[in-house]
Design goal:
Layout lengths: L4 E4 L4 E5 L11 E13 L8 E3 L3 E7 L2 E10 L3 E6 L2 E2 L7 E8 L6 E9 L4 E18 L4 E16 L2 E20 L3 E16 L9 E11 L7 E14 L8 E13 L5 E10 L13 E12 L3
Parallel strand pairs: 2-19
Antiparallel strand pairs: 1-12, 2-12, 3-5, 3-11, 4-6, 5-6, 6-9, 7-8, 7-10, 10-11, 12-13, 13-14, 14-15, 15-16, 16-17, 17-18, 18-19
């Protein structure tokens, strides 16, 4: 195997974080207590058949927004339920969960719940969530972050004595990161697999699938109070073809610059480049043969607040 070039990997990947979302790592996470109260009934009865699981909840911070997750239960069968005019799901036993965003500076928000029962009753109530303890309580962020992603990959394959071709494939990826020195050094590992070839322009109908593993240390170049994260990573990788064409047991060092922008809602846009050199196989000159070059872009959002 002489020349291998990955032109573009993962055009757009939706990355799901299972612990603290990426944005939460750029600032301290904190919580405070809020209390939910009835404020205004739009009819005589109000929502007497709605019972909240508790009256005091903890608010969590993620990115630039504060969220509170509240749970309740309707004690009558419900036909329809809305939060500020938008439908929300209610389980068969009447239970439901709502995520409320606290935007105002005084940590107070009003919201309306409308419910129509299967018996034909319709009721609406306005509620208020207000701070009970406005002093933030520091919360130690998790040292571990986990991720899983699915995206598209363009593979540009070049190998001597093999017809060159380009191929699109669906790539699955999973990884874990450990915060060795908070806000400065991370240790991480990830694995990816081009699981499903979509299209190939190979005249011989070749397709190729890669299975790869990366282990790296990352140094954050900017203060994490910024919305931008600039990271330089280095480490080792293993990559091998699972198909008839390609290569086997490619291993060596790699270097990767990374740039992340954190949006106010906690989502993020991530770009990375990668240069990987193989220590196995014949080499005519350093960095000329047996190498992998890649870059990728993905948009990341949390699965919970």
């Amino acid at each position: 195997m002489r020349k291998l070039l990955f032109i573009l990997i993962i055009l757009m990947t939706f990355n799901i974080t299972a612990q603290a979302q990426q944005a939460a790592s750029i600032m301290d996470t904190y919580i405070w207590q809020v209390k939910i109260q009835e404020e205004n009934s739009f009819d005589e009865d109000g929502l007497q058949f709605l019972k909240w699981s508790q009256t005091v909840y903890l608010v969590q911070n993620a990115g630039d927004k504060n969220f509170v997750t509240i749970q309740g239960k309707f004690r009558e069968p419900i036909q329809q339920a809305t939060l500020n005019g938008k439908n929300f799901a209610v389980d068969q036993d009447g239970k439901f969960t709502l995520n409320i965003v606290l935007i105002s500076d005084d940590k107070k928000v009003r919201f309306n719940i409308f419910a129509s029962t299967q018996a034909g009753r319709e009721h609406k109530m306005q509620y208020t969530i207000a701070a009970v303890n406005e002093r933030p309580v520091p919360v130690a962020p998790s040292l571990w972050r986990y991720s899983a992603g699915l995206g598209t990959t363009l593979i540009n394959f070049r190998q001597k004595k093999v017809t060159t071709f380009d191929q699109w494939a669906m790539t699955i990826k999973a990884g874990a990161t450990y915060r060795l020195v908070p806000n400065r050094w991370d240790l991480g590992a990830s694995v990816f697999y081009n699981a499903l070839p979509i299209h190939s322009n190979s005249p011989k109908l070749y397709t190729i699938q890669y299975l790869g593993f990366n282990a790296k240390a990352s140094y954050q170049l900017l203060d994490l109070t910024s919305r931008f994260r600039v990271v330089l990573s280095g480490g080792f990788y293993y990559n091998s073809s699972m198909s008839a064409v390609g290569f086997a047991d490619m291993i060596g060092p790699q270097i990767s610059p990374e740039l992340t922008y954190i949006f106010p809602n906690g989502n993020s846009l991530f770009w990375y480049g990668k240069f990987a050199y193989s220590l196995v196989g014949d080499h005519s000159s350093f960095f000329d043969d047996n190498r992998e070059v890649a870059m990728g872009l993905h948009y990341s959002y949390p699965i919970s607040f």
